Amino acid sequence: MDPVLNPYAPGAGQRPPELAGRDSELIAFDVVLERIIKGRSARSLVLTGLRGVGKTVLLNALRSAAVRAGWGTGKLEAKPDQPLRRPLSAALHVAIRELGGAHPEDTAQVLGVLKSFAQKEAPTAKLRDRWQPGIGVPAVSGRADSGDIEIDLVELFSDVGGLAADTGRGIAVFLDEMQDLAPDDVSALCAACHELSQNGLPLVVVGAGLPHLPALLSASKSYSERLFRYARIDRLDRTAADRALQSPAQDEDAEFTPEALEAMYRVTAGYPYFIQAYGKAVWDIAPCSPITADDVAMAAPEAELAVGFFGSRFERATPAEREYLHAMAAAAMPPAEPTPDSGCGPVAEPESVPTAVVAEHLGRKPQSLSPARDALLKKGLIYSGERGRIAFTVPHFGRYLRSQGAEL
């Protein structure tokens, strides 16, 4: 097969050629946009799921839907140890510019408030870290500049939402890696969204993060369970997975045999990133169309996955953290894993394992492992959805670690 024509795209956040299995989320968001413009109530949205299930891709698709509806949009990615104020200001600046409108004086007023909000850096911020936003209007004092992020964000969202209402359109803020927000920023964001919902203003927040994100929001504000609509983004079913493979191939006058599709689902388990990675590897090795089960077996895409998806993450861990990851993998091992040629379907690992069991595998007390566990949580390699239990943020990570064994 011609590698130049390879249609598959296993990149981080890169939209696949066929966005299969996400129609219900796209349709539901279109309804949200229409309801808000008509003055009807609609909750902000939070997408959750493991890495590699396509949260960022879906977030970008939802943003495109908002743009098509004439909304102003802005996107940011939360990062550990980075305050929300600066990246949110940049995202809202873009959204207000996209919104436009026939109210230049009101727009200038809101941009002045945004500039004031952006420049209210923490007193301890170093000079080189201070940001001068490219907003060509004077800062407006006395609004969104108290220095308290919760007070300021409530006031800012109210003003931005009011501007959007005056133009008869809306503003949508898309926030990726939402679980990396600092606790004060999470609390402020929840409070601001609560104010928006009470006043019916046309500003919506769409967040995406790891599976424990709802627990973080709930711990910050108890009403967050009613404030957001949560959508769990998971692996694709067999029909959607086949479509994700077949449609791009057919666009290049190629196809998969039924046996090849069955083999692909067996090795990918329906995870969108794996579908793209295995699809790319199989296309490059297959001599011609149709792509067969033998081609799937020969592609051996684990090497690509080890470097691009598993290995790069594992390299970020220290020796002590790697030891902890291996113990997690051992604790999460299913009763019987299939061999590559056994013909068995995907083996589901437990969603989480007790920290006490991990400690037992290492012959250590759970308290002594807290530094390694906390570091892995901060690096985003594992997460804790409930007290006393942990899980990998990457699907099949446990299987990968067990397959590598002592080599790592």
Automatic annotation (TrEMBL):
A molecular function GO annotation: ATP binding
Keyword Nucleotide-binding carried by entry: yes
Name of a matching Pfam family: AAA_16
UniProt xrefs under InterPro entries: AAA_16 (IPR041664), Cyt_c-like_dom (IPR009056), P-loop_NTPase (IPR027417)
Gene3D superfamilies: P-loop containing nucleotide triphosphate hydrolases (3.40.50.300)
Keywords carried by this UniProt record: ATP-binding, Heme, Iron, Metal-binding, Nucleotide-binding
Residue ranges occupied by any Cytochrome c domain in the UniProt entry: 165-329
Keyword Transmembrane helix carried by entry: no
Domain of life: Bacteria
PROSITE patterns for this protein: CYTC
Name assigned to this protein: ATP-binding protein
